[in-house]
Every structure is written in structure tokens, then in C-alpha cells.
Backbone:
């Protein structure tokens, strides 16, 4: 048998044995595991390990060195690999740059493809919604009701309404993400108010579609890619110069797919857009005229997808912006950069774990004595709001985009 | 995205943070980049200054004694470099000792400000007890790790308390090893007991990690539960000193120690443990807190990359984050990227390399190591007092702590280096790791600050 023949023979039996070789992209990630020195620093920092113990969640090192090497018996990994919130802490502390969150995605993708029976059923349900609607949530059945809900939110928060607009050739595409589009509509509204205030030529999408992050996280790579390419086409058709979003997960994921798929334009979080594009000079003079004047003690929560998947500089920006707003005092919580438990779709199927992770944040928030938590992500906002409410806490939560919009000088 | 700084520090272990905190104290706008976690966070959290002379087998009674030896015999050792002041040679050893004393006392005060009080100074080495029951000489330990009069008081009784399901620490073995060692050296205590407590932080008493226990004990209720069982067991044998694994909490270790002492009536202390240890992480956090409080900008999760061609002055550093690159313009740079754990020095199949600027590396004996493979720098004996020369490799610097080139001149006039990225000392063998990082970080920072003040004037 020639070498070539032997290769073909082996290749043909792989499938039979349920062995699926890694493709080029995957190999990069798998290779990063090879540099693991087994030091255990990641375990010491993982918020899930800290919250539920090593016995329930064997931790990042175990994912890197054991679980990623066990194909095809993915059944050994399934209960563990779905408990990772993808917060990125382990990658950040790893002295050897092992990319554990990507390894988690890779393992989940393989399980989804080859052993779908091992995927938690709640994630199958979430996937079905993504496939059917191209959104992370079932959209409003009645558009009237959506408008009503929006108006109620605007009124409660004292925000004006800036009409939706789709403008070809605008400078900025504002991309709200699924949460702000379907649920936290006040965030989308606030972003429009801010852009309008600074006279930015912006546009929305004609029809929203998910950036694909939830599909990636649950392992449905095909749907993730489909959504990403659909979005790329829409962005290209609009001919915008940049994309601005208010969601932390969208920021890191859009930045990732924009680079991968060659969008050729930058993606910013609103905070970055304000500091880098509008500029501190203009922001300073703007907030000097702010009319909101109730003194307020706040504390910040740093979304993982901003600090550990985009850049920690984003939260420096958040601090800089808050420092311009009169009568706002920021008290730092000792767990400000700890995962809120909302990531990785963990709360979909293991709410107890997500809540245990959040406990650390709640205690730290209470300790600051602040009456409000501000965070630049509608998903973190929802997660924090829900937990604080359950705990009977009087601390309120604001998405930072809303918080800013409320403090812009009133027009006219 | 652009940032401006007077000083950029690359590396966030002991050396980088000391340099960064000092620079902010001098009014410098300082940005510190830290890629992963450091060897500092990984360490036992006890600060060695110098435990053995290079190649020596007899433990030094004090760091001062070691520094005197280095002053006369090892002028190129990082501590030795402190003596190059152009002054008379008979003052060299005094100069070195004074500089080390200044830096170490400053650090102690700084950490006290972060609520991590340390015990000890460079006038004597201390005996710390490890989870194995062995005794390790070191210069300074966190107050929570100080065994008090345990090894001095003739009537002391030691009690080693472990936790069921926590595999790192076997109290029975530790008590036995410790007692045998003390008795053979004719030292107290003459009695030691042990017990395994059942704490079950998450409801189970198996497969427990140190981080779980530390977090668990950060909670006051849990601590009083521990105190109760601890007291009962310790009273049984009349313990005067209680040794616990180093898990007394992340945020309230000192308070917890004092509370336990109050509740049990015995002296309570943490043992030194394997990496990664909770006290190491406490030390790391304490330093970071001090840096940020002092007004420094800490950029975690960003690694420094140089994309400009080599020049005589480093004006820009690129900080590469997960999805963003920041360009930082600066007047001086301090390279404190550590060695093999930190990633400042890497061993490749072609030789020993410096990871950010591709600077010249040398071996422990100051031969160029850029083309020497790591295997050539190891001893045949895995464990010996000589250690492995590999750990003595790194950068060669001038007396101002600026890395030098083959031509023996500084690589750039505003580039300084500190900590384990430096060559010429073998920290595992000498027991000098964190001490060298503190002192060189302190001095490199002073020189960088002087430089910046000079060019700004
Ligand atoms: C297992 C172990 C136990 C030890 N125990 C002790 C002990 O008990 N007592 C003692 O005194 N010493 C001990 N040491 C030695 C001591 O920890 C080190 O010598 C000391 O921490 C070195 O400090 P450093 O700041 O030079 O380097 P490190 O602490 O390693 O810090 C280097 C930093 O640089 C960062 N970095 C590297 N490259 C880049 C880049 N390109 N961009 C940005 N950042 C970068 C790293 O992320 C890291 O934060 C121990 C060492 C080890 C490995
Ligand atoms: S990404 Fe976060 S939750 Fe997942 S293993 Fe790493 S540290 Fe733990
Ligand atoms: S921190 Fe990195 S090198 Fe250390 S055990 Fe975790 S994955 Fe491995």
C-alpha cells in the first residue's frame, strides 16, 4: 500500500470511529493548549470554580488539558463544558496565553455537531429561535405592543423619542443587538438620543439580525456563520463608515467577525465612540450643561465581553465619562470586574450556577453603599437587576447608555 | 486609540508594580501593562531577599550578611550592581545594604497601606513553616504567616489543623516532620498535635481547592464556625500555636487571624504552601491596589509589542488587547516582564530570547545566550544547591539597569529593566526572587524617573 493509499484508508475509517480531525482554525486554538504548564493559576481566578467549587465545575485547566483531548467521547465533558460562562478571566490570567474560552466554544461546537443529544435541551430551544427568527429572542408578535412597551419605558425614564431611521451612506450604523432591540428597548432609544444629540449621521438596519454570538456559544457554528454573513451584507449595502453598538457581547463579537470576514470598518462600543470619536472636549462641555441634578452615588460593573474580550481600556472610558457628569460619585466595588454569571448561556440551563456566580457581585455592590449600579451592557443590566430584585435589594441598575442619555442637556 | 505616559512599565509582577508605584509617587504619569498573571502571584507570598550566597550551601543568618558577600564577590549580581556609584570601594557594601534596606522598608510600608502587613526585615532571616512541616528560611512573611514564639518558647505546643477533602495539606504528616526536625535540632516545640476539620465549603468534603476555602473564610459566619471546632480540638492538647494551611481569606486574612486568636486563645498562623498560593495572590492584589490608588493606569490583559524599528530612544509601545491595540507614547520604559513564567525570557529550540525587544540575552556567567539552547544550561542533577544555570540567564544591564547590547552599550537610552528578566542571579538556588524584584524595580524606577525629569526640564 502506498503512503497515499494508507492515508486515504485511515481517513475513511475516521468517521466510522467518530473521530473528526480539527480544521485549520481549530488547530490554532488547540495548539494554544500545548503551552499549558499546568500551573493552576486559572483555577484560582475562575469565578465559576469560586462560586460552586471544583467538584461541580472542574475549572479552566481541566477544560484545557483534559477535556479538549478526549474526542470522540464527548460525554465525559458535557456536564462541565456548559457551565463555563465564557468570561475570559482564565485566558487573561494565563501566563501562557492558553485560549480557554475559545476551546470551550470549540468543544461545544463539536458536541453540537456530533453528539447533539448531550447539548442541554434549553440550548436546543434557544438555537431553534435563532434559526427561525435570526434573533436571540422570539420577536414581538404585535408591532403595536412593541411600540407601547417602548413608550412606557421612555416615559418612565423621562426620555424623548428619536424616530428610527434607515439612511444609506450614513456615517454610523447603530446596532442595538437582540436584547436592546427586543427587550431593553430603552437602551436602543437612548443610543439614538445620544447620536442625535451630537448630530451624528446614523442609520439603523432595515431588519435587525443577531450577530451570531449565542449560536457560537451553544455550538451551532453553521448558524453563527450564516448570521454573520447576513449581517455583513446588510452593513456593506448601507455603506457606513463604522458600526456602533451598546451591547458588550455584540462589541467583542462584531469586532471578531468584522476582522474575520473583512468588513473593513471599525466596530465601537458607544463608550469608545463617545471618547474617541466625539472626544473628551466636547463631552466635557456637554455635561457642563447637564440638567439632571439629583446627587447620586453609583458603582460600575464591568462586562466581561468588554474588559476581557475587547479591552480593559473601555471601562477606563466609562470612568472618564462618569467623572464629567455633575453630582455623580463613583464608588468602586471590589468585584467590579467579576463575571455576573450571565455569560456563556449558563443561566439558560443551570440558573443555580449563574446565581451562585452573581452572589460575589451582589455582596460587593451592597458593600459600596451605592444606590445604583451602572453597566454598559443591557444583558449585564438584566442579570444584575434580576438578582438584586430577588435579593430584595434597593439598589437600582442602569444601562450606561441610558444613564448618559438621561443626563444630556435637554434640547430647546 | 492613543495614550500618553511619562513612563510605561511592561510587566505586572513584583518588579513592575514596585517600579510603577514608585513612579506614580514621583508624580509620573504611569501606564503599566500586564499580560498574564505573574510569578509573583504564583509564589508562596513570602519575600526572600537572599537566603544563600551564589553556590553556597550554608543558609545565611541574615540578608545583610549575604549582601556583604555579594558586594565583595559578585559585582555583576543585580544586588552587586547597586554598588556601582563611582564612590570609594570600601563603601560599596554599605551602599548596597542601604539601598536594599530603603527599598524593602518602603515596600513593607506600601503593603501595610494595602492591608497586607509583613513581618521581618533584612537584619535577619526568619524560619517559616511549610505545609510539609519543613522549615524554610526567608526574609519577610505576611503577618498571617508568622509562627510567633512557636520555635522559641520552651513550653509551646503546636497544633496542625487540616481540612477534610483539601488535598494540599496533610496535618498528620506535617506535624510529624516538623516535630522530628525541631527535636533533632534541640528546639521547641516538643509536642505537636493534628486534626482534620470538616468544613465542607460547598456542602461536600472532597475535592476542595484553596481558593474555595479562602473565599469561604472571607465570610464571618463561616469563620466563627471554624473557630468553634478549632478551639475544641486545640484545647484538647493544650495548643499554644495553631498552624493552618494558607487559606485564611483573600480580603480579611489579617482580621481573620486576629479573630481566630481571640476565639481560640492560641497564636494562629498560616503555613507556606505550593504554588499557586492564596498569599501570593494576596500579595499581587495588594500591590495592584497600591498602584491604582496612587493614580497609575493598570492595563491588565494587554501585552506589549514593539513594531517600530530599533532606535536609540523608545518613544512608543503598542499594547495589544483582546480586540484593541493601544498606542502609548512615552518618555521612558521599564521592562519587568519576568522570566519563564512571566514570559519575559523564553527558551526556544535556537536559544534564549527576550520576548518584547529581542534584546541580547546572556547566561548566568554572562556569556551571550541568544544562541544557546536551554538544555545546555541545565545540570544533570535535578535538585542540587547549584540549581540550574538556566535560571540565571536573562538580560545584562549597565549600572543604571539599562539592558546592554553586544557592543556593551545600552540598547536604548530610556529603556530600563528590572526583576527576573535580569541575568546574573539564580533565584531558586539563592532564595532571592522577590527581593531582587523589589530592589531592582525600585532602582530602575528611580533612574527612569530621573531620566524623564531630565528630558522634561
Ligand atoms: C513557583 C514559584 C515560587 C516562588 N516562590 C517564591 C517565594 O516564596 N519567595 C520569593 O521571594 N520568590 C519566589 N519565587 C520567585 C519570584 O516569584 C520571582 O523571582 C519574582 O516574582 C519575579 O518578579 P518579576 O516581577 O520580575 O516577574 P513576574 O512576577 O513573573 O512578572 C512578570 C510580569 O510581566 C508580564 N509580562 C510578560 N511579558 C509581557 C508583555 N509582553 N507585555 C505585558 N506584560 C508582560 C507578565 O504577565 C507578568 O505580569 C517563586 C517563583 C516561582 C516560579
Ligand atoms: S471563561 Fe470564565 S467561567 Fe469559563 S473557565 Fe474561564 S474563568 Fe472559568
Ligand atoms: S493558567 Fe494557563 S498554563 Fe496555567 S494551568 Fe491554566 S491554562 Fe494551563
Residues:
Amino acid at each position: 500500500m502506498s503512503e497515499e493509499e494508507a492515508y486515504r484508508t485511515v481517513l475513511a475509517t475516521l468517521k466510522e470511529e467518530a473521530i473528526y480531525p480539527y480544521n485549520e482554525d481549530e488547530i490554532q486554538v488547540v495548539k494554544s493548549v500545548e503551552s499549558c504548564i499546568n500551573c493552576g493559576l486559572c483555577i484560582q481566578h475562575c469565578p465559576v470554580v469560586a462560586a460552586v467549587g471544583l467538584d461541580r465545575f472542574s475549572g479552566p485547566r481541566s477544560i484545557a488539558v483534559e477535556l479538549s483531548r478526549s474526542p470522540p467521547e464527548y460525554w465525559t465533558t458535557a456536564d462541565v463544558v456548559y457551565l463555563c460562562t465564557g468570561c475570559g478571566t482564565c485566558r487573561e490570567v494565563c501566563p501562557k496565553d492558553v485560549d480557554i474560552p475559545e476551546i470551550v466554544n470549540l468543544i461545544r461546537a463539536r458536541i453540537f455537531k456530533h453528539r447533539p443529544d448531550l447539548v442541554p435541551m434549553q440550548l436546543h430551544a434557544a438555537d431553534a429561535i435563532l434559526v427561525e427568527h435570526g434573533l436571540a429572542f422570539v420577536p414581538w408578535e404585535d408591532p403595536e405592543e412593541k411600540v407601547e412597551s417602548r413608550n412606557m419605558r421612555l416615559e418612565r425614564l423621562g426620555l424623548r423619542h428619536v424616530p428610527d431611521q434607515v439612511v444609506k451612506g450614513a456615517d454610523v450604523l447603530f446596532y442595538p443587538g437582540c436584547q436592546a432591540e427586543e427587550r431593553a428597548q430603552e437602551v436602543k432609544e437612548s443610543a439614538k438620543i445620544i447620536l442625535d444629540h451630537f448630530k451624528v449621521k446614523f442609520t439603523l438596519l432595515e431588519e435587525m439580525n443577531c450577530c451570531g454570538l449565542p449560536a457560537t456559544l451553544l455550538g451551532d457554528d453553521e448558524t453563527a456563520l450564516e448570521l454573520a454573513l447576513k449581517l455583513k451584507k446588510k452593513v456593506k449595502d448601507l455603506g457606513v463608515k463604522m458600526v456602533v453598538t451598546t451591547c458588550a457581547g455584540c462589541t467583542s463579537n462584531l469586532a471578531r467577525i468584522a476582522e474575520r470576514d473583512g468588513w473593513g470598518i471599525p466596530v465601537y462600543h458607544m463608550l469608545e465612540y463617545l471618547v474617541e470619536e466625539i472626544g473628551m472636549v466636547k463631552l466635557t462641555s456637554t455635561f457642563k450643561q447637564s440638567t439632571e441634578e439629583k446627587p447620586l452615588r453609583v458603582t460600575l460593573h464591568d462586562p466581561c465581553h468588554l474588559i476581557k474580550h475587547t479591552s480593559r481600556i473601555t471601562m477606563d472610558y466609562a470612568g472618564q465619562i462618569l467623572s464629567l457628569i455633575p453630582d455623580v460619585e463613583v464608588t468602586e466595588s471590589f468585584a467590579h470586574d467579576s463575571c455576573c454569571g450571565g455569560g456563556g448561556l449558563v443561566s439558560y440551563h443551570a440558573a443555580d450556577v449563574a446565581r451562585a456566580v452573581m452572589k460575589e457581585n451582589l455582596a460587593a455592590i451592597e458593600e459600596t453603599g451605592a444606590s445604583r449600579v451602572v453597566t454598559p451592557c443591557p444583558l449585564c443590566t438584566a442579570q444584575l437587576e434580576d438578582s438584586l430584585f430577588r435579593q430584595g435589594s434597593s439598589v437600582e441598575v442602569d444601562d450606561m447608555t441610558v444613564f448618559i442619555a438621561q443626563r444630556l442637556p435637554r434640547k430647546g | 486609540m492613543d495614550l500618553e505616559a511619562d513612563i510605561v512599565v511592561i510587566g505586572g509582577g513584583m518588579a513592575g508594580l514596585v517600579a510603577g508605584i514608585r513612579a506614580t509617587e514621583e508624580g509620573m504619569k504611569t501606564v503599566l501593562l500586564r499580560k498574564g498573571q505573574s510569578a509573583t502571584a504564583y509564589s508562596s507570598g513570602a519575600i526572600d531577599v537572599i537566603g544563600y550566597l551564589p553556590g553556597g550551601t550554608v543558609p545565611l543568618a541574615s540578608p545583610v550578611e549575604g549582601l556583604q558577600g555579594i558586594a565583595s564577590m559578585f559585582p555583576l549580581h543585580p544586588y552587586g550592581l547597586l554598588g556601582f556609584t563611582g564612590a570609594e570601594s570600601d563603601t560599596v557594601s554599605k551602599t548596597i545594604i542601604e539601598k536594599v534596606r530603603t527599598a524593602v522598608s518602603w515596600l513593607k510600608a506600601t503593603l501595610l497601606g494595602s492591608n497586607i502587613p509583613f513581618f521581618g526585615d533584612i537584619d535577619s532571616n526568619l524560619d517559616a513553616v511549610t505545609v510539609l512541616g519543613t522549615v524554610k528560611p526567608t526574609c519577610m512573611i505576611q503577618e498571617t504567616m508568622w509562627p510567633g514564639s512557636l520555635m522559641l518558647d520552651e513550653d509551646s505546643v503546636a497544633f496542625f489543623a487540616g481540612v477534610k477533602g483539601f488535598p494540599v495539606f496533610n496535618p498528620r504528616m506535617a506535624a510529624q516532620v516538623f516535630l522530628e526536625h525541631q527535636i533533632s535540632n534541640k528546639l521547641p516545640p516538643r509536642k505537636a498535635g493534628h486534626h482534620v476539620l470538616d468544613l465542607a465549603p460547598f456542602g461536600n468534603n472532597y475535592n476542595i481547592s484553596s481558593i474555595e476555602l479562602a473565599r469561604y473564610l472571607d465570610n464571618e459566619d463561616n469563620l466563627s464556625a471554624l473557630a468553634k471546632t478549632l478551639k475544641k480540638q486545640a484545647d484538647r492538647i493544650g495548643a499554644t500555636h495553631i498552624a493552618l494551611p494558607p487559606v485564611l481569606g483573600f480580603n480579611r486574612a489579617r482580621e481573620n487571624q486576629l479573630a481566630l486568636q481571640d476565639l481560640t486563645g492560641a497564636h494562629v498562623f498560616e503555613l507556606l504552601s505550593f504554588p499557586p498560593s492564596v498569599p501570593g495572590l494576596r500579595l499581587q492584589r495588594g500591590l495592584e491596589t497600591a498602584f491604582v490608588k496612587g493614580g497609575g493606569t493598570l492595563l491588565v490583559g494587554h501585552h506589549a509589542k514593539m513594531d517600530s524599528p530599533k532606535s536609540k530612544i523608545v518613544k512608543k509601545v503598542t499594547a495589544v488587547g483582546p480586540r484593541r491595540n493601544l498606542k502609548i507614547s512615552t518618555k521612558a520604559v521599564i521592562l519587568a516582564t519576568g522570566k519563564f513564567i512571566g514570559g519575559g525570557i523564553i527558551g526556544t529550540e535556537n536559544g534564549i530570547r527576550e520576548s518584547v525587544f529581542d534584546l541580547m540575552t546572556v547566561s548566568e556567567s554572562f556569556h551571550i545566550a541568544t544562541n544557546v539552547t536551554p538544555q545546555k544550561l541545565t545540570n544533570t542533577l535535578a535538585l542540587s544547591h547549584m540549581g540550574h544555570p538556566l535560571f540565571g540567564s536573562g538580560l545584562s544591564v549597565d549600572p543604571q539597569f539599562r539592558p546592554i547590547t553586544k557592543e556593551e552599550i545600552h540598547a536604548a537610552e530610556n529603556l530600563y529593566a528590572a526583576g527576573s528578566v535580569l541575568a546574573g542571579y539564580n533565584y531558586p538556588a539563592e532564595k532571592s526572587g522577590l527581593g531582587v524584584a523589589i530592589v531592582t524595580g525600585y532602582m530602575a524606577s528611580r533612574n527612569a524617573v530621573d531620566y524623564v525629569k531630565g528630558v522634561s526640564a
About this structure: The longest helix of chain A spans residues 221-238. Chain A has a mean pLDDT of 93.
